[in-house]
């Protein structure tokens, strides 16, 4: 696939959006835990795993965006 700058920008925006959303969710989840909200352990574990996995996905998308920017610069 030939990357264009529009692809790079899309990947970058989606990566940044994922980081913003999931870090906000992590902050809210932490605040809920600090307030002593009563949820089963599985709730906390599942949401923590979701946050970690989606932040990893954001990292992969960010790396692809950087690769796409480099590819369009050298073309």
Automatic annotation (TrEMBL):
<dbReference type="InterPro" id="IPR058061">
    <property type="entry name" value="SCO4848-like"/>
</dbReference>
<keyword id="KW-0812">Transmembrane</keyword>
<keyword id="KW-1133">Transmembrane helix</keyword>
<keyword id="KW-0472">Membrane</keyword>
<protein>
    <submittedName>
        <fullName>Uncharacterized protein</fullName>
    </submittedName>
</protein>
<dbReference type="Pfam" id="PF26606">
    <property type="entry name" value="SCO4848"/>
</dbReference>
<feature type="transmembrane region" description="Helical">
    <location>
        <begin position="42"/>
        <end position="66"/>
    </location>
</feature>
């Amino acid at each position: 696939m030939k990357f264009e700058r529009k692809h790079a920008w899309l990947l970058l925006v989606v990566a940044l959006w994922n980081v913003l959303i999931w870090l906000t969710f992590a902050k809210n989840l932490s605040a809920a835990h600090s307030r002593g909200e009563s949820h089963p352990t599985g709730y906390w574990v599942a949401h923590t795993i979701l946050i970690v996995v989606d932040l990893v996905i954001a990292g992969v998308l960010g790396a692809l965006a950087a690769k796409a920017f480099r590819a369009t610069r050298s073309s």
